[in-house]
Amino acid sequence: MDQRANEISKLPFAFPEIPLFETERLILREVRTEHLLYLVNKAPANLARQFMGIRTDAEWNNEKLRSVETSKNFGTGFCRFYLYEKKSGMLIGAAGFHNWFLLHRRAEIGYALIEDRWKRQGFMTEVLQFILPFGFHELNLHRVEACVGPFNDASNKLVLNFGFQREGYMREHYYREGIHEDSILYSLLKPDFEKAYPCMP
């Protein structure tokens, strides 16, 4: 790891402890609802922003708003993994679950890479091979949903490769940068996943 990544890995977030996992090429640091609340409300802002890969005040304000909304929504949770490339030690993106309804055992999956240079290298395939079993087994999910933009060919292909089933088309489902965007709704059920990938941990 480079010096910057090493410093990030030792940030003084004494409570709560942030778990760490590894895949072949990545280190994943797990942040749940309680971690997010701590990061935006108690940790030094400059260190929290560095850890979360936040570059602008607008992104930081969005994270603070997300923490407030998550804490207000009864019965929901949040589980995100920050992704660090082992070779360079750099933070390259994030992936995980949001709109996690504990009672109904369902959540929406999301993922993103910070820069285009990390794309088309199979990182998200590697990540989903880890976080889907994690969601079904560790978070006790029964259903995972994916909402993908109609023109996001790479993401549509990715979820289909993991056995997600298309369920519908949602008009003006996401509001992003002043525009209401459509989404394709996919789902993956735990029994279908385990049948398709019986050997995946």
Coarse morphology: globular
Task: Classify the fold: give the CATH topology.
Answer: Aminopeptidase
N-to-C SSE string, H for helix and E for strand: HEEHHHEEEHEHEEH
Order of strands in the sheet with the most strands? 1-2-3-4-5-6-8-7
Low-confidence segments, given as residue ranges, are: 1-9
CATH superfamily: Gcn5-related N-acetyltransferase (GNAT)
Mean pLDDT over all positions: 86
| CA gyration radius, whole angstroms | 17 Å
Number of helices in the DSSP assignment: 7
Strand coverage percent: 25-35%
Helical residues, percent: 25-40%
> How many domain regions?
1
- Please report the distance between the alpha carbons of the first and last residues: 27 Å
Structural class of the helices, strands and pairings?
Answer: alpha+beta
- The top-level CATH class is Alpha Beta
List keywords for this structure.
single chain, 201 residues, alpha+beta, Aminopeptidase, 8 strands, globular, disordered N terminus
Q: Can you tell me about this structure?
A:
It is a single chain. By secondary structure, this protein is an alpha+beta fold. The protein has a single domain (3-196), classed as Aminopeptidase (3-Layer(aba) Sandwich). It has seven helices and eight strands, in the order H-E-E-H-H-H-E-E-E-H-E-H-E-E-H. The protein has helices at residues 3-9, 33-41, 45-52, 57-72, 123-138, 153-161, 190-196; strands spanning 20-22, 26-32, 76-85, 91-101, 106-113, 143-148, 165-176, 179-189. The protein has an eight-stranded mixed beta sheet. Strand 5 (106-113), helix 5 (123-138) and strand 6 form a beta-alpha-beta unit. Helix 2 crosses helix 4. The longest helix has 16 residues, at 57-72. The radius of gyration is 17 Å and the shape is globular. The relative contact order is 0.12. The model is unreliable at 1-9 (pLDDT under 50).
